[in-house]
Amino acid sequence: MKSKIKLLAKCFASLAVVCLIGILVFAGMLFNRHSFQAWVSGKVVDTDGNPISGARIDLYDCDSDSIANNAFVFTDKDGSYQVNTPHIQYALDTSPSYRGMLAVSANGFVSTRGTGGKPIRKGDNTGRDFVLVRE
Hints:
This protein has 1 helix and 10 strands. With about 140 residues, it is an alpha+beta fold. A hairpin with a 6-residue loop joins strand 3 and strand 4 (about 70-75).
């Protein structure tokens, strides 16, 4: 009889350990960090519509407590650019928006900030064009 009780005690202990592991795995999945990427492209021109080559495009993350620079690129000879965020992770992310902002600067022009007319969303954000004014 004592051996049966010891066997049952070992079974219940094993079951408790398995249940605890299951709870920890579920909790880890519940608070899992979701990863996504955003990429933004467009063109930078002057007020006459001429492309600005070599303009710097900085992509900032405005979701965190502080504004962090995620990435930057320079425009090509046609004034075109494409900037990609690194994979960004947020816990329990349910928002379709990536609160990003672009800063555009070029020698001889007034710098500007914005989103190119629409909120920057996760995924593809094309047509984010900027017009820079000469200093």
